[in-house]
């Protein structure tokens, strides 16, 4: 019995335990949960795949960036290497260019003045001379005697009269100026063709230069294009003039070159010396707010001073004095009651250091010349040394040497031709420069009076050569063979040669006009000379002959 009850209880307990409502089986919802899990797993798998793709894309982008950086680094490295190679080639090219340029300058220095020594060098020129009828010695001598010699006496009388009046005028100018505030004017000097005795064209004009200096305690300190500082090519031949106190060391102190600040003072210079009112510098004829001498201010001051001086002495003279050119400070004209007039130039200049080179405020300009860089740039004139050189060389030449005669004839022919066809780029200064070169190049005996014809041909050939090459070097600048007796400043002898024909390169129309005028002068030379030549007997008329240069 008990066993039976136990069995019944065991069956009932088993039934209760296995009943699904009381103890549900864990795997009873497996089918439904499995599908949901599978769906979630797929979604998760898709998410992981997308994440993987994103990561792969980022990695690929980073790799591409890295490769680009590496490539750019390689390019930079290659460019640096190429730049180094290019810099090396550039430096090498510059060295070669400088060597060539130095060789060219040395070559030019050796031959630029050697113009008349070799007839073979001249023979390759002269295309314009072929077939030109050239006057012989008799015709040239007759022309020179009739047309040119007669003017010598007139020039001497005019020089004497002008110099005497100029001295009187300058003395009156000093008396009307304030010695404590105005510029100090020195004695005048005669320069140019009138004082070198080769002027042939009328009207005769005397050129006088008047050095002036600032009042105490000021002084002039000049700076030229060849003094070491950089000047552009178009400023070659110019310089600047600084007005300084005599006790001021412009080279030893930097207070004038740098701004020290409001709370700093220069221990060498007091504030009174370093700070100058603008009006004070303008009273010293400086450009506004600078210490540089202004050529325009000098022109105004000089014209006013000359006018005051003339008003003081005009009662002593029986003529009138007036300015003949508005753009030239000292272009004066004396007008007599008879109607005759005499023109002369009285031009203010500043001495360069202790030499006879002068800064000139206004210089006669030709069609070649460009405008001044500014009114603080002054042109340098070597007219005093040119006159001394001619005088020095003339002492070594034969009696009645033909150098001046050649220049006079050439100047006359060129002036006549310009009066017929209009002005050209050539000036009388260019013609004088040609003569100076030939004077230095040829031996003294070659300038005997009987060799006038040959030397005139040399001058024409040399001038043609210079026009063809567009090169005519200034006689003094860069010329290391200047006689030591002249005391010429060494700084200009060591400077680079100054090409007077450089503007021809820039002004091709003026160059073409100049060349055409020169060729026309050659063709008309015989006619121009015969116009002023007295009758020569038939036995001597064979003088007009053909010359093949």
From TrEMBL:
Gene: Itprip
CDD domains, per database record: UDM1_RNF168_RNF169-like (cd22249)
Keyword Transcription regulation belongs to the record: no
Subcellular location: Cell membrane; Nucleus outer membrane
UniProt cross-references to InterPro entries, sorted A to Z: ITPRIP-like (IPR026250), Mab-21_HhH/H2TH-like (IPR046906), MAB21L/cGLR (IPR024810)
Family, similarity comment: Belongs to the ITPRIP family.
Protein name: Inositol 1,4,5-trisphosphate receptor-interacting protein
Main location: membrane
Domain Mab-21-like HhH/H2TH-like span(s) in chain numbering: 404-477
Coiled coil: 38-72
Organism: Dromas ardeola
Gene Ontology molecular-function annotations: protein kinase inhibitor activity
Signal peptide annotation: 1-24
Recorded superkingdom: Eukaryota
One cellular component (GO) term of this entry: plasma membrane
Membrane topology category: Single-pass type I membrane protein
Role, per record: Enhances Ca(2+)-mediated inhibition of inositol 1,4,5-triphosphate receptor (ITPR) Ca(2+) release.
Pfam family, one: Mab-21_C
Protein keywords: Cell membrane, Coiled coil, Glycoprotein, Membrane, Nucleus, Signal, Transmembrane, Transmembrane helix
């Amino acid at each position: 019995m008990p066993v039976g009850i136990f069995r019944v209880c065991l069956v009932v307990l088993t039934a209760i335990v296995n009943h699904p409502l009381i103890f549900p089986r864990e795997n009873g919802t497996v089918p439904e949960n499995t599908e949901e899990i599978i769906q979630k797993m797929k979604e998760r798998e898709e998410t992981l795949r997308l994440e993987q793709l994103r990561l792969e894309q980022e990695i690929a982008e980073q790799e591409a960036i890295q490769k680009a950086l590496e490539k750019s680094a390689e390019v930079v490295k290659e460019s640096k290497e190429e730049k180094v190679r290019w810099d090396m080639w550039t430096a090498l090219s510059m060295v070669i260019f400088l060597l060539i340029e130095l060789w060219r300058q040395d070559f030019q220095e050796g031959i630029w003045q050697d113009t008349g020594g070799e007839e073979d060098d001249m023979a390759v020129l002269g295309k314009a001379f072929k077939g030109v009828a050239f006057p012989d010695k008799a015709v040239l001598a007759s022309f020179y005697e009739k047309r040119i010699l007669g003017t010598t006496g007139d020039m001497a009388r005019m020089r004497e009269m002008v110099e005497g009046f100029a001295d009187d005028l300058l003395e009156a100018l000093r008396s009307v100026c304030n010695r404590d505030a105005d510029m100090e004017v020195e004695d005048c000097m005669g320069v140019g063709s009138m004082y070198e005795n080769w002027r042939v064209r009328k009207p005769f004009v005397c050129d006088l230069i008047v050095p002036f200096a600032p009042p105490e305690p000021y002084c002039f300190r000049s700076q030229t294009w060849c003094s070491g500082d950089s000047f552009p090519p178009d400023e070659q031949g110019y310089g600047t003039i600084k007005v300084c106190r005599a006790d001021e060391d412009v080279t030893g102190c930097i207070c004038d070159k740098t701004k020290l600040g409001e709370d700093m003072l220069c221990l060498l210079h007091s504030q009174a010396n370093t700070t100058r009112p603008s009006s004070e510098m303008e009273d010293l004829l400086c450009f506004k707010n600078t210490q540089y001498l202004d050529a325009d201010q000098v022109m105004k001051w000089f014209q006013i001073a000359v006018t005051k001086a003339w008003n003081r002495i005009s009662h002593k003279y029986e003529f009138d004095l007036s300015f003949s050119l508005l753009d030239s400070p000292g272009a004066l004209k004396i007008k007599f009651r008879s109607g005759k007039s005499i023109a002369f130039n009285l031009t203010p200049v500043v001495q360069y250091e202790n030499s006879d080179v002068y800064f000139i405020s206004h210089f006669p300009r030709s069609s070649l010349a460009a405008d001044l860089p500014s009114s603080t740039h002054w042109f340098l004139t070597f007219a005093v040394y040119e006159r001394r050189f001619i005088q020095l060389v003339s002492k070594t030449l034969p009696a009645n040497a033909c150098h001046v005669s050649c220049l006079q004839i050439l100047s006359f022919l060129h002036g006549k031709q310009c009066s017929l066809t209009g002005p050209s780029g050539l000036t009388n200064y260019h013609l004088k420069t040609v003569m100076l070169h030939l004077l230095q190049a040829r031996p003294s005996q070659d300038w005997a009076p009987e060799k006038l014809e040959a030397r005139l041909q040399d001058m024409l050939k040399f001038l043609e050569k210079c026009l063809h090459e567009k090169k005519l070097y200034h006689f003094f600048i860069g010329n290391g063979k200047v006689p030591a007796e002249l005391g010429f400043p060494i700084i200009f002898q060591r400077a680079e040669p100054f090409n007077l024909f450089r503007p021809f390169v820039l002004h091709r129309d003026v160059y073409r006009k100049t060349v055409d005028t020169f060729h026309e002068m050659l063709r008309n030379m015989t006619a121009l000379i015969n116009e002023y030549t007295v009758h020569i007997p038939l036995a001597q008329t064979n003088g007009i002959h053909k010359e093949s240069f």
